[in-house]
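Course assignment 3, question 2. Fill in each field.
Student: A.L.
Task: Predict the tertiary structure for the chain below.
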Amino acid sequence: MGKLACQLLILLLIGSNMENNLVAQSNALVLAAYAMSTKEKQLLFSCISHIDSRPDAVQITKQTKFTITVEQIMEVFYHDGKKQNIYRDLETAADSLFDREVTIQLDGNKRLRTRFVSGVLFDTDNNLITVTFAEDILPYLTQLKANFTKYRLIEIAELSSTHAIRLYELIVCWIGQYQYSKTLDLEDFKYIMGVSGKYKQFGQLRERVIDKALEEINANTEYKITVDYRKVRQSFVSLTLKFHKKSLARLENKDGSLSNDKIDAIVRTEQFVADYNNYRRLSHNAKMNTDDFRREMKDYLITYPEDFTKRPLEDYLKSPSKK
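Answer field:
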């Protein structure tokens, strides 16, 4: 397929409705260190959502262009506003995005320092921005086979804080790795949130980054996050984030965190085994071995609660457990 044909096919795949477009990134990129404003993230993720990241998709190269229109941005991220003002925001975001660097940790104690984009074309008359991704970043956005994070663009539409968007994608990444809590030293947390060297006072970090991010995510997404802090003498040194989908609310502890005891009890019940012993994600070993079944189903139940709809989950707690 020629380059022009590839470009036309990509434009056809994009369509005009971006709300359901998937933002897919390698986990290495999600966990990389970079700082970025909310508008820059909106532009970047809008461009990424145009990429079909599946292994058999049309190949994206350093020559591939991605055009974002004011109408597309308005559809997802703006409830009102004039086109002229929105294009101005888009233009400012693109200028800043062009200068942004990202550091990706590699195997073997190596790290890659690169940029997200290699070029930006501004079309003021038509209110268009066309972006070309940097060659070094493409492997983390295309042909993804494993160890990647994805979510729909509309899922971050109501998040106005760059810290909320950043924490949201980290939560999605961690849950995709079957991690439902994360303990981090405060300096490590600041690094991964892109605020290293800032907020030296814990009170500022908590108010401007942590509390604001949790408030927005808890109010506007399908996830619920709680946080605990560890203090040594007079100083806070670390935090523990616990997170789960709100559809599991009936299985929470009194403090709002998810009850592992209840999840464990559910997957042990005879009724749950009968309902889901042929669940599509189960490995062969889990279908043959009780311990493997319980271990895998605990992860699947927390990660994909929308798959378990045969009866209310709390009803399983009333049925007998399987020995």
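Instructor remarks: The chain has a mean pLDDT of 89. The chain has twelve helices and ten strands.
Grade: pending
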